[in-house]
């Protein structure tokens, strides 16, 4: 708040609702604006099942004073796997339940399976193809119930996606179209009402909902309002799951590569015997590279290791600037480091 105030930005606390296309009401206060930027974030989605009031979310998880002896996590996406890793590290007995057999479907299946195997080795029970229909509360615990399934646990967390916080702003009455994914926007991040913009988690834009993306979109919209009317062009956006180990991805995916095998080649490298990983006793650290055969350049990468966040940042730069294997080979790095490993990948 101090930073905002020091930059001349007024902060008003309360529930906001639009009364017309230029007027916003916050409690008893009314303000008018020539341009509006909606950046109201996301909230966790709750499963619509019997006993849903007993479900908690990542919000409550991160507010825990101490970790319970056992927890059950419903979901198969980023948040579910991150919470599972945190809880397991804290000593809890963790069960992760997903309704189908393909968790983390945006990532290559082989690397996802390796992640699941490593979590299982760390004590996380992963149950796939299990639909949960009810949560019941016992005296001091809960029961997670599905078809031919009944599990007792200390706490149950829903990690089944998130909903954009745009449905209670009064957008219906001013002609701004939206869905659970956010405000519908065009290539200028404008809504149906041209002076209404949406960024980050609040925009139904075709990019991952990540902090760096929100900042990029915010800067873009400010430039739009100030008169720069070019369409938005997104840079390479890496994504990551901070689990045990980390799983990160950037660029052309293996799924996209498999749809055009004449152009792309996919290879997977096991780095278990490399000194960077051997000295830390990492099991099956993997990198998967997608190469454009026409240009002989890497255009996509996936990393699975405890150093995946650092490795993917290096690879993002190399992909963005079109480095070839020859370029990498002619570039000396400190050894042994994550950076020096890259020349062995290309």
From TrEMBL:
Entry EC no(s): 1.-.-.-
Pfam families in alphabetical order: Pyr_redox_2, Pyr_redox_dim
Keyword flag Hydrolase: no
Record domain FAD/NAD(P)-binding: where: 3-217
Domain Pyridine nucleotide-disulphide oxidoreductase dimerisation residue range list: 237-343
GO MF term list: oxidoreductase activity
Record SUPFAM superfamilies: FAD/NAD(P)-binding domain (SSF51905), FAD/NAD-linked reductases, dimerisation (C-terminal) domain (SSF55424)
Keywords: FAD, Flavoprotein, Oxidoreductase
Cofactors demanded by this protein: FAD
Top EC class of this enzyme: oxidoreductase
Keyword Transmembrane: no
The protein's name: Glutathione reductase
